[in-house]
Amino acid sequence: MTTAPSGLSDPTTAAAQQSDAARTPRQPRGGAGRGTAWYRRLTPYYFLLIPVGLLLLLTFVPVLNMFWYSATDWDGLDKTKNVVGLDNYVEVFTDPDNVRVFYVSLYYFAASFLQMAIALYFATILSFRTRFRNMWKGILFFPYLINGVAIGLIFLNFLKPGGGIDTILMAAGLESLIQQWTGDPDIANFSLAGVSVWRYMGLNFVMFLGAIQSINPEIYEASDLDGANRWHQFRYIILPSIRPIIGLSLILAISGALSVFEVPFVMTGGANGTETFVIRTVWMAFNRNLVGLASAMAVVLLLIVLLVTWIQRKLIPEEEVDLT
Amino acid sequence: MFPQKRRTRLMAFAAAGSLLALTACSSGGGSAEANDDGEPSGEITVLTWRTDLVEDGTFDEYVETFKAKYPDVTDVKVEGLTDYEGEVKTRMNTDNYGDVLAIPGSVTPDQYGDFFEPLGSQEEIGAEYQWINDKSFEGQSYGIPVVGNVQGFVYNKRVWEEAGITEFPDTPEAFLEALQAIKDNGVEVAPLYTNYKDGWPLSQWDGWLGAVSADPDWKNKIVESDTPWTEDSDYGVVDGLIYDAVAQGLTEADPTTTNWEESKRLLGTGEVATMVLGSWAIPQMAAAAEAAGASGEDIAYAPTPVKVDGKFHSVAGGDYNLGINVNSDNKATARAWIDWFNHESGFSESQAGLSPIIDGPVPAALDSFVQEVELITLNPAPEGKESLFADIDTASGIVTTDPKFRQKSIDDARSGARTKQQIFDDLNAQWAEGRASAG
Amino acid sequence: MIRTATTTAKYVSLVVASIVMLLPLGLILFGSFKTSQEFLSTGPMTLPADWGNIENYVTAFTRGNMLAAFGNTVFIFAMAIVGTILIGAATAYALDRFRFAGRTTVLALFLLATLVPGVTTQVATFQIINGLGLYDSRFALILIFMGTDIISIYIFLQFIRAIPKSLDEAAKIEGAGHLRIFFQIILPNLKPAIATVVIIKGIAIYNEFYLPFLYLPSKELRPISTTLFDFKGPYGSQWEIISAGVVITIIPILVLFLFLQRYIYNGFTSGATK
């Protein structure tokens, strides 16, 4: 994947020049002959000027500012920022409304297991010979391409009282199963997480399918000769070969669960106990002008994501994830 | 493409090293072309919460008439915002929040000067307009209400009468009994609609505050109290009624799927019997009733269901107040718009509201209401305490200007997670804490 | 016996899954052709009385600003994609073809940035965008889209390694400068990478809601997603119009999907695992 070393140490100039000599084919000696050596040495910096500038401006400066804001009571407007130390962090973990957003993300995290299981099932059966395979594949994947706002509206229409799902249950004689899908606080988060499964399952599915199809077909043939059945093929050939990508999906599921925004925002606006991390942070920062507190929330989110990624790197060695 | 911004951008790049200072630099761009006191001319942007009037072309007519009066004005851009409070608050993190806008309820008095241009001294503006105390701070007025409202609730007369209720309920209990009677008589959706999902209609209940105790100083007293939520206090009656109505199943079954535009139709057709909204809602409800094939005549207005000394009371006050963005570079035109809007647009009449102009006409729709109900106007906060209420409110973490705390008590009323008393206790504790840290 | 049973189970599960996937979409499609009265009086599963009733679509386009929204989305997409490609390719070129002081630091910075979800930093990014005077300008989005897309840079890095260095060498001998090598050798040879980036990025930009929601309040500047979101307000009680709006946003992506299926799958499988 990447050749970056795990440490962030900056090699000394001398070392870099040495490696320069060792690794890059030399410039033709008498060739173009324009520009001096120092000019040529500056070339990569010209190419990197804008990319690195934007990287610093839009990623690193905001991250650093965020840490700084999170230690202040800044409201986003005042000229002065009072340092309040860790007060904001205390608030993040003590205000029950703030703690609740972590709890809500658990619904989405749990749902992602269901999502992966379904994706794995369909990826497996579609990796064998199937009629209309491309059609099934297209149908299962397409929801992933739809706008989040559209999905929110589609399911508002589908889940509202008397909407699509109620009509189906009624037609099937299952009136007793009809719920207030977003109105019942015990069910709302399940409904929203369900919408999330509907939306993202296709991506997992296509990733799994890609991984399964990259398995050498001869392996199946050999196993067929050995008398292996489909379950054996799944258990001993497919599963081991896609283990890394499942691991990766799991990690993505955690940061995904914490950054859920569009669907609950469109469908419930975060009311009725469905407020997610991002909805709450946005509300805090821009409606209540608690930029300090919102930054502390964002820093916590960032640290969780970093921690999870670090664990991923520990558990899954990098080269294994590379499928291509 | 954005010439007025170019200057700021350059400054910003120059300051790239100290990005923290950027927000400070970016204010007041484009002063070269600023039109602060000249003749109205050029272009302004008006932010409005009335998306329906933008949608149906009413605002286009306003703009045309305004431009006819001031031919030098090239354009008035009207932006209707669906979630007005929320979106404007976000935009107020920048300089870009239009030239004329309604001052959001959550802006605290001590912040007025940071965001809005003073329109004149409180005395001067007060000589011409009513209800301007609310948006004044330290003797300066920052906003003028577009229309005056009375507060109470809007209901479908036909449905109420069919359930046998012909008199205004005069206690909260009588109000609940009336709703129960309507429910027993059969009503399609609910006797009372909360509009929970949109949120802001829940803040409309605040219109009852002051009418319950018939005390024009209720707000000034509450900042001295550690227990604003009691059985018969202003807040206690309002939030208690909401809780009871929800707990007794008198409101819509699934509050999370409510919709404001939809609610107008429901009330108009009688599928919903009651909604607690300011009198500004009357014409909208009547129009929705007509549009749905019902009669606009069914829509009526009643006062807060509490009698003090044998009389109903209603707080008369300004609706949204129009103010001018302090960063505007066309303040002269912005001011002309506000004055024109109040004097000549015909907006307040069309909204069946009281005119914000002193001794302005009382519209026919409110004539009988005004006969039966004693109107009170709230007293301003004493000198130096203008922002005390807001400070306590913010420090307490309740944020009464945000519907969240009321949504939460509805959640609890439905699930039974907290009793009414527990909610009151929690709110009182938070309030007391807020008082301790803000006072 | 068992074979037939499993085969049947397989197809049944596929049919059920397809219904689950398509039904919510289908109901929106039905709704979009109904009249206002019809929408309220008929059930969601009832087919519209008149499939030729396009009034809701007309309303969505004319009064719902959908046309302007498409224009804005295309504008933002076009600018951002050109920027992303140039930035991604330039970065990859510099990092792969040169050895220079600070190279590993730059690589590490980009690697570190992949770990920062954009959604977390907007609280602070907002202040910077505002400071640059870009609030309520489409360039705010363009800048963020092209400046924070680390995934594309990795895709370019991956592909540039496959371009033989001998090509650069040959050009150099003929006297080409680095800029010419970049534009005439590297970029044309990166076409497959560019296709991947255009697809992933294009769909991401088309669907992005959070950024325009924060940075583009002006009605006439809004892209598809926030324009559609706005339908909830004035049309809140007119689900037939909301439905038409939803269908309008889905159609372009559906058409693209049908024509570019293979590239889209490839784009996502390679993009997602990098």
TrEMBL record, chain A:
Membrane topology: Multi-pass membrane protein
Keyword Transport recorded: yes
Subcellular location: Cell membrane
Ranges annotated as spanning the membrane: 45-69, 106-128, 140-159, 197-215, 236-261, 290-311
Domain ABC transmembrane type-1 residue range list: 101-312
Pfam families registered for this protein in UniProt: BPD_transp_1
Superkingdom as given in the UniProt entry: Bacteria
InterPro entries on file: MetI-like (IPR000515), MetI-like_sf (IPR035906)
GO cellular component terms, A-Z: plasma membrane
Keywords: Cell membrane, Membrane, Transmembrane, Transmembrane helix, Transport
GO BP, sorted A to Z: transmembrane transport
Skewed-composition ranges (Polar residues): 1-21
Annotated region described as Disordered, given as residue ranges: 1-33
Family classification: Belongs to the binding-protein-dependent transport system permease family.
Name of the protein described by the UniProt record: ABC transporter permease
Higher taxonomy: Bacteria, Bacillati, Actinomycetota, Actinomycetes, Micrococcales
Automatic annotation (TrEMBL), chain B:
Alphabetic keyword roster: Cell membrane, Lipoprotein, Membrane, Palmitate, Signal
Keyword Hydrolase found: no
UniProt cross-references to InterPro entries, sorted A to Z: Bact_solute-bd_prot1, SBP
Record's signal peptide: 1-34
Domain of life: Bacteria
Keyword Cell membrane in record: yes
PANTHER family on file: ARABINOSE-BINDING PROTEIN-RELATED, POLYGALACTURONAN_RHAMNOGALACTURONAN-BINDING PROTEIN YTCQ
Entry protein name: Sugar ABC transporter substrate-binding protein
Organism of provenance: Cellulomonas xylanilytica
Automatic annotation (TrEMBL), chain C:
UniProt keyword annotation of Secreted present: no
GO biological process, one term: transmembrane transport
Presence of keyword Transmembrane helix: yes
Keywords carried by this UniProt record: Cell membrane, Membrane, Transmembrane, Transmembrane helix, Transport
Subcellular location(s) per record: Cell membrane
Entry's transmembrane regions: 12-33, 74-95, 107-129, 141-160, 181-206, 241-260
UniProt-listed Pfam families: BPD_transp_1
GO CC terms: plasma membrane
Membrane topology recorded in Swiss-Prot or TrEMBL: Multi-pass membrane protein
Domain ABC transmembrane type-1: 70-260
Family to which this protein belongs: Belongs to the binding-protein-dependent transport system permease family.
The protein's name: Sugar ABC transporter permease
Species annotation: Cellulomonas xylanilytica
Lineage: Bacteria, Bacillati, Actinomycetota, Actinomycetes, Micrococcales
